[in-house]
Amino acid sequence: MSKKDIFEVFFRRKPAMILVALKKNTRNRYGSVLAKEVDCTYSHTVKILQEMERAKLVSFEKQGRIKTIKLTEPGNKIAEYIGRIKDIL
Fold it and tell me: How far is the C-alpha of 39 from the C-alpha of 75, rounded, in Å?
């Protein structure tokens, strides 16, 4: 994935809000809960999260039948910056 492609992912509203929501709560995060928080369909949320995983910004941990989502170190930094930009605007 090129830098331009990944830039396009993050500066759309839903992907940016997904990262910010992941940053706010450090407890176990699930795709369905995250989708509700950012007012997005579950399938669209999963698609965005898969793109973020390919870019190494989030990781999935399987716990039985449930997958939890965690920010990686680069994902955490980006979420912090997006949060700051959102607060400024």
Answer: 21
Please report which confidence band the pLDDT of residue 54 belongs to, taking 50, 70 and 90 as the band edges.
very high
Write the CA distances from 19 to 66, 74, 86, integer angstroms. Answer: 20, 11, 12
Domain ranges across the chain: 3-88
How many CB atoms neighbour CB 16 within 10 A?
20
What's phi and psi for 38, nearest 5 deg?
Answer: -100, 10
Distance from C-alpha of 72 to C-alpha of 86, rounded to nearest angstrom: 21
Q: DSSP characters for 53-64?
A: HHTTSEEEEEET
pLDDT band at 6; cut points 50, 70, 90 = low
Stated pTM of the model: 0.79
| 3-88 fold | Arc Repressor Mutant, subunit A (1.10.10)
69/22 Cα distance (integer angstroms): 8
